[in-house]
From TrEMBL:
InterPro entries listed in its UniProt record: Lipoprotein_NlpA
Compartmental location: Membrane
Name of protein: Putative ABC transporter substrate-binding protein
Keyword annotations from UniProtKB, A to Z: Lipoprotein, Membrane, Palmitate, Signal
Main location: membrane
Coiled-coil spans in chain: none
SUPFAM superfamilies named in the record: Periplasmic binding protein-like II
Domain of life, source organism: Bacteria
GO cellular component terms given for this protein: membrane
PANTHER family in the cross-refs: D-METHIONINE-BINDING LIPOPROTEIN METQ (PTHR30429), LIPOPROTEIN (PTHR30429:SF3)
Organism (species): Brochothrix campestris FSL F6-1037
Family: Belongs to the NlpA lipoprotein family.
């Protein structure tokens, strides 16, 4: 039998070892598709005692409904304009954006053409039906001088906002891009998330992409108002904008993704101009 003093000493040593173990927090994050951003955040979390679980949803609306229902703690993958539009449509007043995260270019993809000038009169282009994403696609086509939008365009997608369509292009609206086939259309406008689901890259099939950061299309993180001061949520936001993540994304991104670290206040007023660009350099 061990002496009582030795047993007490062993108990204290074991207790001390247990107290030195890091407390691991967990968080559930909803996304639309995996990309380099989410991968790098998860890699960085291994050094920060934060267990991250990603849950994937098909649409912005499904993502925000899951957030409101407390299925997830944070929602990502959606631009500030898409988030605001979905929140307003579904009357989800309990949701709030908490920080900027990244920008990834919308692209016009094609399996039939190699460059934008290959488009022919009467070709059909598939566009997202979601009002915010449709608006973004129309801005892309306007910037590429394929169409001309009404001077008072307010960012909400509406084909009636097209005032000039010299090539008499036809437009087909897609409820979801998950099932779209490039071969079915002359070109398809896809978000970064939708393109990744189809294993497309901007250097592969894109005829044109956004080349600068429009304010309205910066991707943000969102949570519930009752959760926005939660320490785990704040830790996740801080980690997502950390130097480690920024450096890794800058070196490894293959589809134009860029971390955007800036105060949310800097995105105020995005509704007034859908071609106004973020003045602060991405990743700063």
């Amino acid at each position: 039998m061990l002496p009582l003093t030795l047993l007490l000493l062993m108990t204290l040593v074991l207790a001390g070892c247990g107290s030195q173990q890091k407390t691991v927090s967990s968080i559930k994050v909803g996304i639309l598709a995996d990309n380099i951003i989410w991968q790098q955040i998860k890699d960085a979390s291994s050094d920060n005692s934060l267990k991250i679980t990603y849950l994937t949803y098909a649409t912005n609306d499904e993502l925000n409904q899951a957030l409101a229902a407390k299925e997830i703690d944070v929602a990502g993958s959606q631009t500030i304009s898409a988030f605001d539009n979905s929140k307003q449509k579904l009357k989800l007043d309990s949701l709030v954006s908490i920080g900027s995260l990244y920008w990834a270019p919308l692209g016009l993809y094609s399996s039939k053409y190699k460059q934008l000038t290959d488009l022919h009169n009467g070709d059909t282009i598939a566009l997202p039906a979601d009002p915010a994403e449709l608006g973004r696609a129309l801005v892309l086509l306007n910037e590429a001088k394929v169409i001309t939008l009404n001077a008072n365009f307010n960012g909400k997608g509406d084909l009636n906002k097209i005032v000039k369509n010299p090539m008499k292009l036809k437009f087909h609206l897609l409820t979801t891009a998950d099932e779209v086939r490039l071969d079915d259309y002359e070109a398809v406008a896809l978000t970064n998330e939708a393109a990744r689901k189809q294993k497309l890259t901007i250097n592969d099939k894109a005829l044109t992409i956004e080349v600068v950061v429009p304010k309205a299309y910066v991707t943000i993180l969102a949570t519930r108002t009752d959760n926005q001061t939660d320490q785990v949520v704040r830790d996740f936001l801080k980690l997502s904008q950390s130097k480690q993540v920024i450096t890794a994304v800058t070196k490894q991104a293959e589809n134009g993704e860029q971390i955007v670290k800036m105060p949310l206040e800097s995105l105020d007023g995005y509704e007034t101009s859908y071609t106004e660009k973020v003045s602060q350099k991405s990743g700063m």
